[in-house]
Amino acid sequence: MKKLTKLVSVMLMTSIAASVLPSCGNLSAAPKAIKPLLIYVGYRNNSTASKYVEYSDEDLQKLCDIGVTEVCINFGNAPAAYIPDGETEPKQIVTEDDINNITLEMIGTTSSETLKTVKSDYIKKIKGLDKKLLIEDYADFAIELAERLVKINPDIEIWYTFPDIFIASLAELYIEPFLHYYDRLKSGTDPKIWKKNIKGMYWAREDVPVVMYDNLNTENLVDFDNATVKAMKACTDAAHEDGKLTFWCPYFRDNDNVARPIGYVANQTDIFDYVILQPGYMFDESLKENIDIIKNATISNAVLDDDGNPYGGEKKSNTMIGPEIEMQAENFNGAGSKAAKERYQAYVDAYKDMLGEYSMAFYCGSRPSQMDDTVIDFLSDFLSESK
Questions:
Q1: Is the pLDDT of residue 9 over 50?
Q2: Which range is least confidently modeled, 115-129, 203-217, 287-301, 343-357?
Q3: What is the pLDDT of residue 54?
Q4: Euclidean distance between CA atoms 211 and 165, whole angstroms
Q5: 105: pLDDT confidence band, cut at 50, 70 and 90?
Q6: Average of pLDDT values for 336-355?
Q7: Predicted TM-score of the model (pTM)
């Protein structure tokens, strides 16, 4: 019954979706469906001692040759520190004192035990983050790769990324360093590249935490009194003011704790021009239903609840919804390769014919996975109709 209800809702909403455009003032980009490939640079494993394998110029040329015309330069780590304007020494974005000062109101609970657990979890988490992870380095990694991409393809479209937020309840502490980072991207990128090739900003945090860690006040449709959403809005506002687009790619689960906050952000605000939903089925066979749920959301251009209705009621935003296409060499080349390829085929069957008309993004892992022969072949085949 759930699926039937959703399909009826989809049929009713399809004609509405066709007329919806992103909210940003960048008119040349607004009507166009996006199809960025996420590529990873910089540090990994929460440490400056470990970095992603770099893409060679030959790798970038091969991606261009198979039809990749849009990329998102992404990071696998949250930053730990930044150097404020006018200063010379790094400043930690979140300290243990900041965590110890979290209040019951900040996480939307009346339980002292819950607050104690949250603080303990956060302190353990932050101790595992290398304090030398400077956000300035992240900007430099992105700028360097952007310049190399433009040399390979002068017309390539590039998304820069606001990095991950490590401590969600204190997300507002990331606003100043993230805007500092954004200014560094602007000032450090060749003006011609910034104007022609930099399409916008991606938001790397893949969820809006609402269980134990934060509030979601659905009476406040500006930021829901939620620290993560406040940070989202402050950062994407800066991009929109520069005529840039914004997109987000949260992981999706069909429940109130995950889908509901995503739905409110996507349906009721113009924080993001595009919200691309991660099915997760490639990595978890129990999530097969997400393929159809996300397809319905894409066609409806709204994140839907279990009754097939947009979260928050009538959709007020201009945000465009789409699916993420997921693949990874480790799955295709391991013991379960046959089952993994069958799971990937479900993405092809559901979404390939939507390419070009609807927005989507592509996740293929880091460089060793991305440049694997099987992954390259699958990506090339998927993109072939839109070259």
A1: no
A2: 203-217
A3: 98
A4: 16
A5: confident
A6: 97
A7: 0.90
- Per-residue model confidence as pLDDT tens digits over 30-47: 458 999 999 999 999 999
pLDDT of residue 213: 65
Q: Which domain holds residue 364?
A: 2-92+132-386
pLDDT band at 116 (very low <50, low <70, confident <90, very high): very high
Q: Give the residue among 249, 199, 254 at the shortest CA–CA distance from 360.
A: 249
CATH number, domain containing residue 149: 3.20.20.60
Mean pLDDT of the region 67-79 = 97
Give residue for tokens 């039937």. Answer: 4
Residue at 127 is within a domain: no
Total structural domains within the chain: 1
What's the CA gap between 221 and 302, in Å, rounded?
16
Specify if 112 maps to a domain.
no
Encoded tokens for 328: 């990874």
In a domain, 120, yes or no: no
Residue by residue, what is the 3-state secondary structure of the chain?
CHHHHHHHHHHHHHHHHCCCCCCCCCCCCCCCCCCCEEEECCEECCEEEEECCCCCHHHHHHHHHCCCCEEEEECCCCCCEECCCCCCCCEECCCHHHHHCCCCHHHCCCCHHHHHHHHHHHHHHHHCCCCCCEHHHHHHHHHHHHHHHHHHCCCCEEEEEECCCCCHHHHHHHHHHHHHHHHHHHHHCCHHHHHHCEEEEEECCCCCCCCCCCCCCCCCCCCCCCHHHHHHHHHHHHHHHCCCEEEECCECCCCCCCHHHHHHHHHHCCCCCEEEEECCCCCCHHHCHHHHHHHHHHHHCCCECCCCCECCCCCCCCCEEEEEEECCHHHHHCCCHHHHHHHHHHHHHHHHHHECCECCEEECCCHHHHCCHHHHHHHHHHHHHHC
The pLDDT tens digits of the residues spanning 281-332 come to 999 999 999 999 999 999 999 999 999 999 999 999 999 999 999 999 999 9
Beta pairing class for 70-74 and 47-51 = unpaired
